[in-house]
Known about the structure:
Layout: E1 2-6, H1 20-28, E2 33-38, H2 43-46, H3 50-62, E3 66-72, H4 85-105, E4 109-113, H5 155-176, E5 179-183, H6 193-202, E6 208-213, H7 214-219, H8 224-231, E7 235-240, H9 260-269, E8 275-278, H10 286-303
Parallel strand pairs: 1-2, 1-8, 2-3, 3-4, 4-5, 5-6, 6-7, 7-8
Helix pairs in contact: 4-5, 8-9
Amino acid sequence: MKIGAAVGCFTINHYAPPYEEAVKTIGEMGFDGLELIAFTAEDLNEYYTTERNKNLKAMIDGYGMQLSEFILYAYAVVGLIDPNPQKRQQAIDIFHRGLDVAAELGTDIINTVSNWPVELTAPISYPPLSIHPYMPGFKNFEPKHTLSMPQNYDAPGLWDRYLESVAKLVALCEQYKIRFAMEGHANVVMGTTDAMLRAFDRVPSPYFGTNFDAAWQMMQREYLPWAVYKLRERIFHVHLRDTDGMLCYSYPVGQGVIDWNGFVRALKEVGYNGFLSMELGGLANPQKYVKESLDYMRRILKEEGAEG
C-alpha cells in the first residue's frame, strides 16, 4: 500500500484552488501520491485548463508521486439526484468534463461523495455534517437531532432515479478506462457499506467501486474490518482520518478510536494495494499533524507487512 494526501490538507480557503503550493508541500513531505479536487463545476474549466493540467502533472511527476484520484466536490454534481431530468443531465455533463480533466492529469480514479436528497434540509448547509446539535453552524441548541424532508417521501423512487444517473456515469468511466469511486458520508443515499453493495448489484461494472473513508464509516457505527471484508475488490481508494466515534470525524490519524492495525490487516487480506490518503482539512497546524499522521501510518504498514 502507498500513502498519499489530499491537497485539501493544505488549502487555505476550504478546498478552493490554487493547489500548486499544496502539491509542493505534499511532495516535499515525501508522500507517495496526492489527490486533486474540483471545488466547483466552474473550476473544471477556469482552473483546470489543459496548460495548467500539464504543469500540475509535471509537478507531481517531479516529486516522484502519483495522482491517486481526482475528486469532484459534492456540490459540483449535486444535480445527479434532482427530480428534474435536465438538471440530472447537466450534472452528468459536469462529471463528463471531470473525466476529461482526470485523464489529462493522469489518474485512473475519479471520486465524488454520494448525493443526498435535494429535499433533505438541515440546520447547516452540508447535510452529511448534521450529525449532532452541537456541530459548528447550529445557531441554537436543539436536544433532538432533526432534519426536514417531505412526509411519506418516495425513497424507493429516489434510489431508482439516482442509480439511473450512476449507471450513466459508470458507462462514461468505462469509455475513459477510469474507475468511479463513490464515497459514503452520513445522511447520503449511499452512505453505508450495505448501501454500496446494493448499488454494485444494480450497476455491476468493475469500473464502479468505493472510496472508503475510514472515519465516516466508523462514525456510522461500522466495524471497519468487517466492512472491508464485505467490499473487498470494490475498494478503489481509501481516505485516512481518525474519529472519536461520536462527533468529530477529522482527528489526525492515530489520535482517535480507530484500530488502524486491524483496518490495514483487513485491507491486506482482501488484496488491497492502492493508496491510503490523508484527508485532514481545516487543521490549525496541518504540517505538524499531517506529518505525525504520515509517520504513524508508515509504522502501522511496517508492523502489518503492507508497505508499498
